[in-house]
Amino acid sequence: MSGALPVIAAREIRALFVAPPAWILLAVVQAVLGYVFLIRLDIFLELQPRIAALPSAPGLGSLVIAPLLRSAAFVPLLVVPLITMRLFAEERQRGTLPLLLSAPVSATTVVLGKFLGVLALLFVALLLNALLPLSLLLGAGLDWGQFAAGYLALALVLAAYAAAGLLISTLCNSPGVAAIATSGVLLLLWALDWAGDRGGGWLAAMSMVSHLDTLLRGVVDTRDLAYFVLFIATCIVFAVRRLEALRLHA
Amino acid sequence: MNRVRAGTQGRAIAEVYHPRIRDYSRAPAGRRRACAMLIVSASMEAQPLIRVTDLHRRYGELHAVRGVSFTVAHGAVMGLLGLNGAGKSTIMRMLCGVLAPSAGRIHIAGFDLLRDPLAAKRRIGYLPDRPPLYPELSVDEQLRFSARLHGIPRGRVAAALAQAKERCGLKDSGRRLIAHLSQGYRQRVGIAQAIVHRPAVVVLDEPTVTLDPRQISGIRALIREIGRACAVVLSTHILAEVQVVCDRVLILDEGRVALDAALDDLADVSVTTTRIALEFPPSMEELVALPGVHRVESLADGRWRLHHAASWPVDGLTRRALGAGWGLRELVPERCSLEQRFFDLTKRDLGTDQPGGTAPA
Question: What is the rounded CA–CA span in Å between residue B120 and residue B128?
């Protein structure tokens, strides 16, 4: 029943925002990224007089916004697991899962509801982050195409983190284990890129970074979009299957 | 749905319309809906609200539920009794769709729980052994969540909430956080979230555990009241509770039904033991020699239990006791109590009890 989807998402959002962790997370992420932004801006101001004469000099977009977004994709790697760990592991630990399983709601609705709940928090973080480059409008212009592609990339990366964390949370009985496992998996997906061309380059192709970097350059390639969409869909489908299987094995 | 109206009148109308279902589909929509509702409620009363057929559940090697079948009718309260590990919670979880059966069928108000899970689950309210409550929510928020999850439209949520709180004695606790509630209140919120959507079937796993005596009697009265309008299944370790609350009892032993009986039938079983207390007891042989006595058990404090045939006249005993100066202090005809039946049926060498009696969570 689709009517239950917003109900589940709303409870998830409420559970996130009544507790301090979500606020602290938003504050910490914003503080770290604010620092990165200032450093990058400082570097740009140092370089600008020297490169201004070049015919196609790198502008604010390449020197400030792209590195900022790359950091904005990396920092959540460390904090998203702390948000997603709760999703199912905590329900199992606290004994509230029977309420969802005995309700006239499909497993898909439960999983999507929780996924949307977490996305809401992550997109608040994303909007706060977008305020940093937008503040440049006070004294400079922005490349809106690159800006949009960059934030699309960030949104996709955050959704992918959330989907992976959601799946791992259905696999674990305790939130702590889910958090550690999620951090490990996400770091690995990030680090796959370091393989470079070894192994025929397919390891790097599986990495999130390579797809992220294309988008951050302002190139919206369907291959990269497909990578993220497939990654998210796969995690969600497996999470649904896992939730259904809990009835068999629990 | 107005169940009162759907009584005899409903059945009569249903009979009129039932053979002509195709015809009345052309009737005005309002009337059509009313007729359909009456037919549904009439058929709901005709068939049991819960029908469980040959239910099995295995946890790996452990065969926790082995071929359990039973039905519960509208307006009945059924008590599930059994030792730890007998399969009570497992059966209740399967009834509510939280756990899939290894084999067997479950019908809730005529809907197959496995084939049509959403329709069946809409008619179930479930209180697991741990109330499924979110500590960060207030009582109102928790109940609103439960109501919305069970498909109560937004406009009717407030009324449903008010009614559930009224019934569970939570009228003034709506704004309190669940994290700050005592065990007894949490249990009440647990029951309230199970009945807030007015389900036809209510399943309560040990509803009165952790409550104080006053709360227990309140909750028992509430369960009786809930039982009037729907079918209730509850599990408990307190045998007296079954006698107070239930119409029927299902005693489980190692995953099988050991007894399925109406409580009234149990009470009718005639007296076959009498307990006596004697100040100056004679030898065991003299007691066994009494007319009609099969066997004598010696209990503590000069008490004895005489096993005899049904409708045994006690005057033989009293005359003898007076004549011989045994000093008769007590004479208690022992009803075949539920407790006695329970222990007879679940008699088991404690040494061979299954390790880790309760089912894994």
Answer: 18
- Evaluate the CA torsion angle B246, B252, B255, B257 in order and state its sign: negative
The answer to whether A1 contacts B118, with C-beta atoms less than 8 Å apart, is yes
Q: And the tokens for B245?
A: 């609350």
Closest CA of chain B from A158, distance in Å = 26
| A168 token code pair | 């791992």
Q: How far is CA A173 from the centre of its chain?
A: 23
pTM, whole model, 2 decimals?
A: 0.79
- How do the domains of chain A map onto residue ranges? 4-249
Enumerate the β-bridge partners of residue B249: B79, B261
A248: nearest CB among B100, B146, B148: B100
Contact A96/B at CB under 8 A: yes
**Running DSSP on this structure, what letter comes out for residue B138?**
B
Q: What is the percentage of chain B residues whose pLDDT exceeds 90? A: 34
Q: Could you give the CA distance from residue B35 to residue B33 in angstroms, rounded to a whole number?
A: 5
Residue type, B285: E
ipTM of predicted assembly, 2 dp: 0.86
* Interface-testing mutation among B149, B156, B157, B177, with chain A (most A C-beta atoms within 10 A): B149
pLDDT of A219 strictly over 90? no
Q: How confident is the model at residue B218 (pLDDT cuts 50, 70, 90)?
A: confident
Kind and range of the H or E element at B233? strand B231-235
What is the average pLDDT across B271-282?
A: 83
